[in-house]
């Protein structure tokens, strides 16, 4: 199947879950996961995931907050680069995590792609398999160009899903609400940074995300809209 046909199927799918299930029917790996990161400075508060992993493993992962020790996720968010899982150094803690995942049927072979759109929203697409190392490396070499081409479509799908209700009920994190509050009383980015003990760059990142979530061009518009929606 051509890349354009795959993209078309992704775009026509009902939601992100259906889109990644379509992916699995077309390829030979076992599991597909896509994670949306709306603000890299508050990853834990801004993670939105769709996965074909067993529901029991997803529940185990979330309930125990394994994201904090996930070596693949942490490596990618630091390097901003795609990675073959076997190339990531493991700590004793992360080795135990992989051993536990294996008990839930998760394979030891994986590859993760990363994408960042024009407004700074990022996503990570991960493929997982029980293939042996050499077979997996060969498989990735074949499918890598295709997944690099279709990832923007998957990213758009999960982004639209996450923000589908943003105009009615935007979901802001506690830190984003703090930035919005101080902006509403006339504080500059540098002043907000000083008050919250974070960098001005981080404040600007929050403000950008706030404007995106509220569908506003300026922070002044975002403040007015948030007051109208009783967010602050």
TrEMBL record:
Domain of life: Bacteria
UniProt keyword annotations, A-Z: DNA-binding, Transcription, Transcription regulation
A Pfam cross-reference name: GerE
Keyword Transcription regulation (UniProt): yes
Record protein name field: HTH luxR-type domain-containing protein
SMART domains the record matches: HTH_LUXR
Natural source organism: Aliivibrio sifiae
PROSITE patterns: HTH_LUXR_2 (PS50043)
């Amino acid at each position: 199947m051509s890349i354009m046909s795959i993209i078309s199927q992704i775009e026509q799918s009902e939601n992100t879950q259906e889109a990644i299930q379509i992916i699995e029917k077309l390829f030979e790996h076992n599991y597909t996961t896509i994670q949306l990161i709306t603000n890299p400075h508050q990853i834990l508060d801004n993670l939105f995931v769709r996965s074909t992993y067993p529901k029991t493993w997803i529940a185990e992962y979330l309930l125990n907050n394994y994201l904090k020790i996930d070596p693949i996720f942490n490596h990618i968010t630091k390097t901003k680069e795609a990675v073959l899982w076997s190339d990531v150094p493991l700590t004793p803690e992360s080795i135990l995590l992989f051993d536990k995942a294996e008990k839930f049927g998760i394979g030891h072979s994986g590859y993760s792609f990363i994408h960042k759109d024009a407004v700074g929203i990022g996503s990570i697409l991960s493929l997982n398999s029980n293939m042996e190392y050499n077979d997996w490396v060969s498989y990735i070499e074949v499918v890598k160009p295709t997944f690099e081409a279709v990832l923007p479509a998957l990213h758009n799908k999960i982004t639209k899903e996450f923000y589908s209700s943003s105009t009615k009920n935007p979901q802001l994190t506690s830190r984003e609400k703090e930035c919005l509050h101080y902006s509403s009383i006339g504080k500059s980015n540098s002043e907000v940074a000083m008050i919250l003990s974070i960098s001005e760059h981080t404040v600007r990142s929050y403000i950008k995300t706030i404007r995106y979530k509220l569908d506003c061009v300026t922070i002044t518009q975002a403040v007015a809209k948030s007051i109208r929606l009783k967010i602050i």
